Amino acid sequence: MTTTTTDTTPTWQPRQAVPVIRQSLVHAGALLRSWSRDPGIVVQSLVFPAFMLLMFQLVLGKTVTSMGGGDSIYGNTGLVALVGALFGTLATAISLIHERDTGLLARMWTLPVPRAGFIAGRLVAEALRTGIATVVLFAVAMPLGFRFEHGLAAGIGAILVPMVFAVGIAVPVIAMATVASGRQAVQQLGGLFLLLLFFNGGFAPVSEYPGRLQPVVRHQPMSPAIDAVRGLTEGGPVAAPLATTVAWTAGLVVVFGPVAVRGYRRAAERR
User: What's this model's pTM, rounded to 2 decimal places?
Assistant: First the structure.
């Protein structure tokens, strides 16, 4: 009689068996579903920007418009869209620290998928989160006078600008979150973000700032992005501010990208 044996030994799957693009999209989708159930991230991404826009427009709208920088609703909407990107990255960075401390990162790190997909997926999720928040913000701004004066295509471009900006900001924030000892270290970035909030070309025309501060205000990363959103919606220069925004994003990725990758790897392998 012949006996047949079945080999039940699990087959090792190479890590590159899953395409990195597919892995990035799957990871991004999982993060977005997780963030949608986190009240802190929802408030920081959707509620806080809408409330800030209403306050800015109701309290400062007429004053900023009278300064000669154009209709304030366009500058305020671009400004608040970027502020939502800034503070949204802080909320997701805190969730990243929680994943690190609970060992979730370590468990995901052992999966047979390209590890580059974890960083790429998180950046894709940040961009999509910002895009969704910007669409909601534009909907809130429309009853206040916000319009897409140059058509739908330019309006889509205006949504993409904060998404590009968010990727550049997310990289140093991820780098900080992976090496920080606790949430307080990441929350300290909020102080820097507040400075960016009040010293940019959307909060007030650059000419209204003291002379020595004007170059800083004009060239900090938020100002060209706000100008690009304004140009794509109300009208004005687009190419130069958009190129500057892309340059800022590329520079932040190049400088802080290696730090974020090393920090993510150490955080995942810690447990």
Answer: 0.84
